[in-house]
Design brief:
2 copies of one chain form a homodimer. The first copy, chain A, is of the alpha+beta class. Chain A has a single domain, classed as Aminohydrolase, N-terminal nucleophile (Ntn) domain (Glutamine Phosphoribosylpyrophosphate, subunit 1, domain 1), CATH 3.60.20. The first copy, chain A, has a 5-stranded antiparallel β-sheet, with helices on one face. In chain A, a hairpin with an 8-residue loop joins strand 11 and strand 12. In chain A, helix 4 packs across helix 5. Chain A is globular, with a radius of gyration of 19 Å. The relative contact order of chain A is 0.20. The interface between A and B is large, with 49 and 49 residues. Chains A, B: Keywords: Hydrolase, Protease, Proteasome.
């Protein structure tokens, strides 16, 4: 399984992904699920992927290969994030159609995948899209500033409780890390290390990328602080009194 | 959808269920999902159900009807919770087989359901079982003292963080209410009122049952206190510093 979350806020976009891939419980590996395409002072595009690993790797490879061919529309020459999302959607359809049409009858492999595309192209504000296995997509808004893909439910309540469009990027990253920690604790198929990135509005940079392992002191600190804070909050709840309605 | 949780602890068993039933988004109703069978000083059995409403109502009705027939094994004359769980499992198989075999070809109704059975029969400690749509079942242990059915993921992290086998029953109920609150906030198909019950070890009672509506002052208090406590904990997290590995 996978857990990826992206938050498009007033200050920019925050990305966090786990890196565990599994086919069953005995074929577990680490694969990067956060991919960056970057052109100085012009565009920063970040893709996160969840789903069939053959599908997502094929899509990322095709998108990167085609970005070298200036003759056709590609992720490095589109002039809007909407066009970039459309291109990715077409590639999703192409790969899933190719692989699923080669499937033997009676076999039931799931070739589908979900992709998050976030970032900024010059001339536009930062944007964030969720591209579905069918190639269609939705865009994050101020009301719903974040998207999740993969094993998203365990980590959703904390985001729903603390995140708004105006949350500072550093705090949003902290929220994303707590959200992933909640998922890690409840679901074995999501695992460390994490790949995270902060993209600051109008920076067109890609330098704030980090790989977070078990040993990262900051992640260890907030995991502990969050656990203790939650337990303290719980122990301070008023004593049970259900009858008084 | 549905969310039910039951916790079998050293002091007894705690039950909490929502009451929303939906077929699609426009046929939403309130149905009780917590059912009690009780015999003074001898047994208290509590059933919680999730899944196809026709299936679960049929199962509960058959179990109650058959409990009037002393000639055959039923929930009021079994001498162990294991036998009670087996009886429920048989009834689950009977109803699902009856309804699904009447299904027209091409139709794909899901007739399945999951049932939690908790409580105590004299001569045994309190026990808790999760009965699957196939009629087989598992039992809660000291290591894994709780079961959830229905829309369980949103409310799982808080339980995993605070509940142990020795948590007092009142605190466990508070934990269950917070777990349901987290689910209510993230999933519209889980809804108030809640039906909750505390069963105290060796009491063979059934009097601590409560229906919790939007207006319940205690529930409103802990919803607010939990939200604020969580936000405060979040705001006190140390400032982001990912680079120092």
């Amino acid at each position: 399984m996978t857990y990826c979350v992206a938050m498009r806020l007033s200050g920019g976009v925050v990305f966090a992904s786990d890196s565990r891939t599994n086919a069953g419980v005995d074929h577990i590996s680490t694969f990067r699920k956060l991919h960056v395409l970057h052109q100085d002072s012009e565009r920063t595009l970040v893709l996160q992927s969840a789903g069939n690993l053959a599908t997502t790797q094929s899509i990322i490879n095709l998108l990167r290969l085609r970005a070298k061919d200036d003759e056709r529309a590609n992720l490095l020459n589109t002039t809007s994030m909407f066009d970039a999302a459309s291109l990715i959607g077409e590639t999703v359809r192409e790969v899933i159609h190719r692989d699923s049409s080669a499937q033997q009858s009676g076999s039931s492999t799931d070739f589908s995948c979900n992709i998050l595309l976030g970032g900024q192209i010059i001339g536009e504000p930062p944007r964030l899209f969720h591209i579905y296995p069918e190639g269609n997509f939705i865009e994050a808004t101020e009301d719903t500033p974040y998207f999740q893909i993969g094993e998203s439910k365990y980590g959703k309540p904390i985001i729903d409780r603390v995140l708004t469009y105006d949350t500072p990027l550093e705090q949003a990253m902290c929220c994303a890390l707590i959200s992933i920690d909640s998922t890690l604790r409840s679901n074995l198929s999501v695992g460390l290390p994490l790949d995270v990135m902060i993209y600051r509005r109008d920076s067109f940079a890609s330098d704030e990328q980090y790989r977070i392992t078990e040993k990262n002191p900051y992640f260890a600190t907030i995991r502990k602080a969050w656990s203790e804070g939650l337990l303290n909050t719980f122990l301070q709840m008023p004593p049970l009194n259900l009858a008084e309605e």
